[in-house]
Structure formats: C-alpha cells, structure tokens
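If your schedule permits, I should be very grateful for your opinion on a structural question. I have a record of one protein: its chain in single-letter code and its fold written as discrete structure tokens. Would you kindly read the sequence against the tokens and tell me how you understand this chain to fold? Thank you for your consideration; the sequence and its tokens are set out here.


***
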Amino acid sequence: MPRWDTEIPVIRRERPEIQVLTCHDEYLLHTCFDVDGMVVGYGNVVPRDLTEMIAIGKARDYPRARAIHDKLLPVTKNIYHRGSHREGTSALKHVLVAREFGGCDGPVAVAAARGQGGVGDSCDGQVGAVERGCTIAGYFH
C-alpha cells in the first residue's frame, strides 16, 4: 500500500493498456479512483456496493465513494480489524457457503450461514462479526 501513490501513476503513464486491480479490501476508498476493478474477498459480502464503488471511482466522484465507504465501514471493521486476518478470511468463506446453500446475495447470506449444514455452529464468532457489521451498516433492520 505505501507504494500505491508512487507506482500506479507510473504504470498508468508508461503502460496504459495494463488493467489495474486493487486487492486492498481495507483501503478501497483510497484505491477505487485508480483501478479498473477489484479482486477482493469482500466482494462476496457486498458485491453490489463494490460494483457501484468501481463505477463511482472511475467517475472520480469522491462524495459518493465516501458515502459507500462510510456505509461499509462497520462491515470492514468487523471483518478485517481483528486480532488475526484468518478470522476475517474464515468469515468470508462462511458467507460463500451461505450463498451457495441459501441462494442469498451479499449480507443477507450472513444470516443464512447460521444453521446451514452445521456452518453456523462452528463459526458463530466469525459469522456474528460480519452480521454485526452488516446490521450497523443498515443491511439488516
């Protein structure tokens, strides 16, 4: 991340045909203005918001990008701002399982993860963290 502001402009200038993708789940607001897309596990939790953020970043609309960032911040904190990155990775995997079993999309899949094939019982901590973030962000009422 420290090299982003130095190297991305050079890549864009010298090799404009190369697509630039961000993989910085925790820094999407900063990177969304310089990318062609995102390769982030976070996209499994909030795919529509991140797709919108890419378009907003390409339009260079900081206020709208900031609004999505602020909406997602509780989710981000509950996934990534933890003692171990493995906890966040585990939570993301359980969302994928919930989407498969429940046919759900995005944060709704978090709720479906509870009790699906024993997944909810084995990962209440991780799923609960994502669920708390989604609730704070307004995905659950």
Remarks:
- The chain has eight helices and two strands.
- The first strand starts at residue 21 and ends at 22.
- The two ends are 35 Å apart (CA to CA).
- The helical segments are 4-14, 28-31, 47-58, 62-80, 85-102, 108-113, 119-122, 124-136.
